[in-house]
From TrEMBL:
<dbReference type="GO" id="GO:0005829">
    <property type="term" value="C:cytosol"/>
</dbReference>
<comment type="similarity">
    <text>Belongs to the UPF0250 family.</text>
</comment>
<protein>
    <submittedName>
        <fullName>DUF493 domain-containing protein</fullName>
    </submittedName>
</protein>
<dbReference type="InterPro" id="IPR027471">
    <property type="entry name" value="YbeD-like_sf"/>
</dbReference>
<dbReference type="InterPro" id="IPR007454">
    <property type="entry name" value="UPF0250_YbeD-like"/>
</dbReference>
<dbReference type="Pfam" id="PF04359">
    <property type="entry name" value="DUF493"/>
</dbReference>
Length: 70
């Protein structure tokens, strides 16, 4: 989740793709907040290991434009 700025969704997908290549457009779902200030991006994938999930979470959490990662 982050501020609804141009390129936010693409940035999230790019970060996740570093660890889980082959993400398709149908695996990505975005939703804006009621006021339009925030955007949440959901990426559905099949993780290969806990280490892979941890690496994705760490990269997302470390990015300055990501406010929250679940």
């Amino acid at each position: 989740m982050g501020k609804a700025e141009p390129g936010f969704e693409a940035m999230v997908v790019e970060l996740i793709s570093r660890h889980a290549p082959g993400i398709t457009e149908t695996a990505v779902n975005s939703r804006s907040s009621k006021g339009g200030k925030w955007i949440s991006v959901t990426v559905t994938l099949r993780a290969e290991s806990k280490a892979q999930l941890d690496a994705i979470y760490l990269d997302l959490s470390a990015h300055k434009k990501v406010v929250m990662a679940l």
